[in-house]
């Protein structure tokens, strides 16, 4: 059971909280009450409670200062602040000092129950996490050896994830799990090694994509997999996680590609009159030129060069219609430094020279 201290200078508030602790949340045991911050400190020193329900406004020493002192000397203590609306800034400061949550007055019984039950779950998860991390750290050489052995495999798995090869991923995971089975790990160590692998994989994906696509956190995965009690069930859990990753990566890369093309075409429309090349535009959108060329053909159904040419020629036609500029000036205005070459490209597209087009339009 978890030991609880109530610190509040209002008798009725203490009675409500006592009712919750003694009747509503079976995992808790009341070990003391305090009506001010100094008294709360004394009880904490003597009883070492796991959880404290602490009012902010109390005589002698307020809840804020008491919280600061308790967290400094007993950092594992979970403190829930109780505050009025006009004391909300104090509650935020208490959170900064290390309080885990707050309740607003007048405190409702069902709200206290909800907050306490959530906190109990969090405490139990922390205990499991700390236990598993300790086991993992006790064998740091083994962990380092594992990561060295599976670094290349992680890169391969990343490529499969990026390509969306779900079937190949499942086979890859089976091979990986079979290799780890030969290490004769306990189930706990087995989980730790695979979860370390998943966390590292998520970092690799984000680094490669240069955006936040997915993130696995060690403590969250440990908690989520805590009730899995066989290697086979755990293997299925890992595959399900990777399917989620594949879906996120696929959607993210589709979005990235769409954004890249949009950015590239906007840049072309705004800079067509300059000496534009595939390499220059690729640099603007942070891609290599080969991949940008591939994207253009896939998304725009034409090459980069053809798209740029069409933009320039469309603008050239507008200028020829509206101005009397000579052909050399028109060519320069749409990005061609050589008027003869511009005329050749124009004629190839419209079967008319720029001069003939201007005359025909009139």
SSE blueprint and pairings:
Layout lengths: L1 E6 L3 H14 L3 E7 L2 H11 L3 E5 L7 H11 L4 E6 L4 H10 L3 E4 L4 H29 L2 H24 L2 H16 L5 H23 L8 H7 L6 H41 L6 H7 L4 H12 L3 H19 L4 H7 L5 H12 L3 H8 L1
Parallel strand pairs: 1-2, 1-3, 3-4, 4-5
Helix pairs in contact: 2-3, 3-4, 5-8, 6-7, 6-8, 7-10, 8-10, 10-12, 14-15
Notes on the protein architecture:
One of its GO terms (molecular function) is DNA-binding transcription factor activity. It comes from Selenihalanaerobacter shriftii. This protein has 362 residues and is an alpha/beta fold. It has 3 domains: 126 residues, 3-Layer(aba) Sandwich (Rossmann fold), CATH 3.40.50.2300; 107 residues; 103 residues, Homeodomain-like (Arc Repressor Mutant, subunit A, Orthogonal Bundle). The chain has 16 helices and 5 strands. A 5-stranded parallel beta sheet has the order 2-1-3-4-5, sandwiched between helices. Strand 3, helix 3 and strand 4 form a beta-alpha-beta unit. Helix 3 packs parallel to helix 4 and helix 6 crosses helix 8. It is elongated and about 100 Å long. The chain starts with a strand and ends with a helix. The model has no long low-confidence stretch (mean pLDDT 82).
